[in-house]
Every structure is written in structure tokens, then in C-alpha cells.
Amino acid sequence: MNLIDWTATDLLAQLDTGTISSVEITQTYLDRIAAHNEQVGAFLHNDGDEALRHARDVDRRRATGQRVGQLGGLPVAIKDNLCIEGVPTTCASRMLETFRPPYNATIVQKLRAADAILIGKTNLDEFAMGSSTENSALRMTRNPWDLEHVPGGSSGGAAACITAAMAPLSVGSDTGGSIRQPAAFCGVVGMKPTYGRVSRYGLIAFASSLDQIGPLARTAEDAALLLQIIAGYDTSDSTSVNKEVPPYVNNVSQPLHSLRIGLADEHFADGLDAEIETSLRDVVRIYKRLGATIEPISLPHNKYAVATYYVIAPCEASSNLARYDGVHYGYRTDVRRMQAELDRQRNELEAAGDDAGLRNLDSQLVRMYRQSRSEALGPEVKRRIMLGTYALSEGYYDAFYLKALKVRRLIRRDYDQAFKQVDLVLGPVTPTAAYPIGDKVDDPLSMYLGDLYTVSANLAGIPAISVPCGRTRTGLPIGFQLQGPALAEDSLLRAAYMYQQETDWHQYRPHLNE
Amino acid sequence: MSLTRAQVQQVSLLARLQLDDQELDRMTSQLSQIVDYVEQLSELDTDDVEPMAHGVEQHNVFSDDECRPGLDRDAALGNAPKRDDECYRVPAVLGD
Predict the structure, then answer these.
(1) Is the ipTM here above 0.90?
(2) By CB atoms within 10 Å of each CB, which of A137, A208, A225, A299 scores lowest?
């Protein structure tokens, strides 16, 4: 068997017994990246020399009996909205193209301490806003299963690099489905943990009450391995949850007895692709065979989730992205040219005696903010900043933002009610499989509606996992989603593991030309 | 259209963005479409519902009142587009 066919868990066992070295593994993945990244575009940035230097150090320590961290020399890819000190961290935006963070994200510190080899930074929709990675200002990522299709997003690079065997593990972020949806489109496992389970310190903020960092991998067991390292309380994130982290890795292979799974009618209503529905029915059959009981539940406010999300997320984004002002860091417009243009406009208005026009003319500083932001931010980011600014502006706050926060509670209550009755909720991740590149770029609302099944977990703050469960007639992956109550990551991983023991969808790889 | 072009222009100033004519047209129609969609929230009666700002509701998280090292000045200024020794440089704020 080729080294890239091993799971992260298997590789770690081989590392521990010394039958394989971290340098061999790291070099193998670096070779894959060199061979296929041009085609797939999963990575924005790699530092192979630094990765190999760390791998050699881990091998040396292991050989001399010194301490080696829990990930013991396994490569891990990092989404490019997570700060690594001194390493380009761009959010796939022109705004941060040259930005090098002065500090490490907490998860980066933890991964380094666990001796993960940080193999590169993965592509995303600009500032994680999008569902296809087409909004990256820096490069195109293609779905390795069909290069003319999108990989999903925003963690498109993070999912594509797993399925294309360019990394055994990767870290993404999920604000409205940004881990789970690309995981489904690319046929890998992706988990959004409970809000607060993983510290957000050093994650470049999009919508702070919804953002959460999580693992992508081929199997639930591998996802457990990564979550084990990145989860936990952190005083640098005031929203971090101060609860002990369960032993996910030890527990993941323990089946759940008398598991109660809920199915919501709302998840199987109009709009769900027939092939996906058929795959989901097969998943249900497998869980039944494993002894689970299936119960109908109701999530009556689910249909309002997209509307609620597309008020709250843009409001928070418009506030968070106010920091990109061309002053502290990031892109600044050519100030000399800007001033010359401003002078020309002023002279013109003065000559015309247009007093109102003069009063409305930007000051130099305001013009610098506006021009810097407009030149460096892409259309989707601008759209969300505009939407959020509008919804928070005087006279609209109550009708939009406050209203959405109230509906958010109704969505949360639906889940509280459901979890009195069942342990987990099973449903789709996406209404369709991956779509062709360019299909939805001119129609933002139709792109947003694709987030129908994923945004509720972010609004409610609950954990959810996406697991591969089939392929369409045209060969594109299909995933199913399990959602659980707050801090039920352990059950989600165990349930996903049970399913993967019975199926082999996670073992297939797309064929990439050498 | 639920938003006018003039409204969108005003919002672009609040958002510190500058949109050209073509962008203004497109933004007006796209934002209108999205706002029309989210207006469905108004059909729900939420008078007695407490707003929910966070997924895990925690209040008053304090840290100990003690001095800790922060970023040093050079690191903090390291990514500035333009700096002047100890400060960020910006175009003149006063005097025009």
C-alpha cells in the first residue's frame, strides 16, 4: 500500500514503532503537493524546508528517546485565516496579501507543541465568505473529483488537500458550514465543534458569534486525533468553554448503545436532490442495522435559518472588517495619486460653485479608507459589509439585527426540544452535490440558499459533523450530517466511526493525472 | 427594489467603501434581492423572545487584573503600510 493511502491514525502508529519516519511522510506529501497543487490549487503557501526541518527534529528526538508530542511528526495543513507568526496569512484577500502575523493562533501553538508538521496554508473564499472558494482573490481551487467543479467553501483548500492526498489532516473554520459543506463536496469528514470548544484566538474574525475552528480528515478516527489536540479552554479567548476535553481518541472506537437518531421532515423537504435523499435513506438503514432507533423530530424554524444567518453574519462581518483601514496593517491605496484626484475634484466643484458637492466631498482620511478598502476587497466581501452596515444602520437595527437574534433563539429552542427526545439529528449537509465552477458566481442569493442545512448549527452553537456516504451518478461525493447537543463531539465522532466501519466511501480517492 | 441607489450610496460611505456607477447598480439590485428574502423573518411573532447574541451564552468573563507583556512596538508596527518611528502615518487629518 502506498503511504498516502494510510490514515493519519495508521501513520502515527507506524511513526511510534519506528517503521517509518516523519521525514519520509512529510517528503511524500510535499511531493504530492508539488505534483498536484498546480492542478487542484488547494494550497496558497508551502514552506517545505521548514516542514522538513521540523520533521528531522522530531525523528531525531524519537530516535534518542526524547519527548515527542502526540501528533509525533504528522503533517497538518492550516487554513489561511489562521495566524502563524511570520508566515504569510492572507485570508485569500489582496487586503492581507503581504501580512505576516506577529503572533501564533492558539491552535498553532497547540499543534506545534504536539509536533504536528505544519505543511502549508490552504485556500479559502476571501475572509471565509463564500461556499465555493471561488471568492479567493489569490487562486482557484478545483474539486479533485472533477476539476471543473467547485470544492465547496469556504474551507475549499482544506477539504481538497485531504481528498487529493496532499495532507493527512487539515484545520478549517466553519461560520455557516465552511468545514462541513466542502467536506461533503470533496468526500471527506469535517467537523464543526461546539461554539467555544476550540479557541478562536488567532483566527481572523469573520462573524465572531458563529466562527468555530475544526478538523478535516478522511475518517472520524483521524478527526478525533486532530480535535483532541486543538480543543480546550484558553484564557486568550473569552468565549472559550472551560470544560474538560474528553478522551476523543480513546473513545472513538466505542460504539454507542441504544442510540436514538432524529429525522426532521424539514430536512427532507423540497429542494433536496433525489440522489442525496436516496443516500441518506441508506445511511438511516445502516444505523438501524447497528441498533439505533429512528424517531421523527421537528425543527419548525429551520426554514428561517438562512435569512437569520444572512443578517447576523454580515452584521458581525461589517463590524469585524472595519479594522481593515489601510492604517494598521494590510493594503493602502497610492496616497499621492489619491490626493491629486481629490484636489482635482475639489477644484472642479469650486469652479462650478457647487457648495453641496464640496460639503459632501470626502476628507483625505475618509477617502484613503474608502479607496484602500474598495481596491483590496472583493465583491462578496463588499456585499456582506454593505449588507451588515445597512442592517445595523439607524432605523433598521430592530427590524433586521434584533429580529434575527430573536429568531436565532427560536432555532436554538427547536434543537433543545429535539435533544430531549433524541441523541443526534441526522440529515443532509447540502441540497445538491458540488456544482460546476462559475455556476452561481453571479447569483449570491442562490449561493446563500445552499447553506440551508448547515447554518443552523452555527446559530445554535451546537456541534455537527459531515461524513461521506455516497456518490452521484456523475461521480461526485455525497455527505450526511449529524448534529448533536452542545459538547457532544464525542458522540458525533463515535457515531461517525460506527458508520465508517460499515462502509468504504472514505477509502476512495479521485484519480489525478501524474 | 427595496433599496434605492441613493441609500446604497449612503451606506457605502458608512461602510467606508467607494463604489463606482456599475458597482452601485449591481449592489442596489443584489442587496434588494437579499433584503427582500430576509424580510420573511417579519412573519414570525417574536415579541416575547429574548434575543440570542451568542451560541454559548456566557457573561462577565474577567481576567486577573495583572500586567502581562503585550506585543512590542516593532512587532505591532511591523505590518503598517507606512510608519514613522513610533507611529502609524496617515494623510493630514486637520487643516484642509
Answers:
(1) yes
(2) A208
